Sequence to fold (105 residues):
Amino acid sequence: MPPGFFSILDKIQYCYTSECIEKIVNEYLFSLIKESSSSNNIKLFNDDDSVTENEFFNYYKFSEALLEKAIENDIDLSIIINDLEGKLGKTHPIVVLLKQFLIEE
Fold:
């Protein structure tokens, strides 16, 4: 697992296992719950438009694991998508992948 001081997207870039991605998904969901219960706005993601092949693969794995957790725990996917859109923008690969899943569902 990458160091704790990295943003969530930075951590995704350094993951090489599914377990690492799942830990980051859990961290994100926990931060989403914590953030919604407080007015404290912590920056979880860095703004960066360049995406490498490895990063895109990890974004895909992150999206996949996030979807699984959301379905398992009956979390409204639109809440997650809206949160990520605000933090990443509408064209970020994670947001696009999640929206695509929502359309296909």
Notes: The two ends are 32 Å apart (CA to CA). The first helix runs from residue 8 to 13. Residues 39-43 have pLDDT under 50 and may be disordered.
